[in-house]
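This part of the workshop introduces the protein records we will be handling. An example says more than a description, so a record of this kind follows:
>
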Amino acid sequence: MNKTILISIIVVVLVVLVGGYFLFYSGSQSSLYVTNNTNYTPNTSVPPSTNTPPATTTPSLQPQNLTSLVSIKNFAFNPTPLTIKVGTTVIWTNNDSMPHQIKSTTFNSATLNNGQTFSFTFSTAGQYNYSCAIHPSMLGKIIVTQ
């Protein structure tokens, strides 16, 4: 068989495999987290029909639960830097096959194996630098604003 044809076939197979890998794993990460998970039972009863207009709602001034995600993959934190508001909880997820441990002067995680998470809620504005205690070249930064 001609070398050019053989090399072309190998390149096409590699492109399909790599593309399939990224499509599979990028699509599955969006459903990993459920926030405010409560036992919810929908109200299935139908109210009697009335001619009154529906009630309007007023925006609540209660604080919202804010969450941001950081992925640990390919020996890197992503995104970094991450800018968030005070009160936001950041959840780090180890998507690497190797263990990682988040280390900071403000927060520290246990060793995270593949698929495990660590979360921390930032209550004070400022810049928070962190690294991996196991792989010190891995650096990250959280910027917390009011």
